[in-house]
Amino acid sequence: MTTQVKAIIADDHPLFRSALSQAAANYLEKDNIQECYDLASLFSLLETHPETELIFLDLNIPGAKGLQGLTQIRNQYPDILVIMVSATEDAKIINHAMEAGACAYIPKSTSLSNIGKAIEVVIDGDTWLPENLDLEAHPIDNEQTEFAQNLEKLTPQQYKVLAMIADGLLNKQIAYEMSVQETTVKQHVSAILRKLGLNNRTQAGILFNQLSQVDTKSAEGFA
In what order do the strands lie in the sheet with 54-58? Predict the structure, then answer.
């Protein structure tokens, strides 16, 4: 039996998109499933389909920069469920993704039947992980966990400012890029540090960039 949940599959590999769409179609109406191949097209779809309730997000999708893609979605669309999909099966990376707001993590080696189970569990309001995975044995830094979770407190404008801080831009440059006054940027920076519980912009930039440093290069098969 299918539900009326509307979903987007965001993955740059057409064969896996097709397989995921096939698995999802057992639980979701086929007409309610959209597909895209990079982060920019995902956000375009979200603008035209604000009723979206579920996203399948490839960890390595172009434009995502590791877990920054996930945190950006969680920041701008906190009510949308996000299922991470990846060839990477590193428990520490999976743990980091879950702490950053994912509701499930599906390795690309997962069978179609188990993908279906994951979809069913998430739609029912629970989280799903591969069997026999002990996340407690692979803890991540508490500071990183708290930082990733606090990103949801930022407004989309503040998130954008933080991303530019992480890229090394000065307040004057950020003001130019956003077409606002430098005083406005300073206000954003103060609010960002307060919401993230940090003392300075350098620390904020370092922690934000760590989200993009997920090591997925060793994964085999689909990227």
Answer: 33-36, 7-10, 54-58, 81-86, 104-107
User: How many angstroms separate the Cα of 37 from the Cα of each of 8, 17, 23, 52, 204?
Assistant: 10, 9, 18, 17, 30
- Over the chain (223 residues), the average pLDDT of each successive run of 10 is 88 92 90 95 96 96 93 95 92 89 94 90 93 69 86 96 97 97 97 96 95 57 36
Q: What is the spatial distance between Cα 136 and Cα 150, in angstroms, rounded to a whole number? A: 21
Distance CA 58, CA 56 (A): 7
Q: How many degrees, rounded to 5, is the angle at CA 223 between CA 55 and CA 75? A: 35
Instruction: For CA atoms 13, 18, 23, 26, give the dihedral sign.
Output: positive
CB 211 within 8 A of CB 148: yes
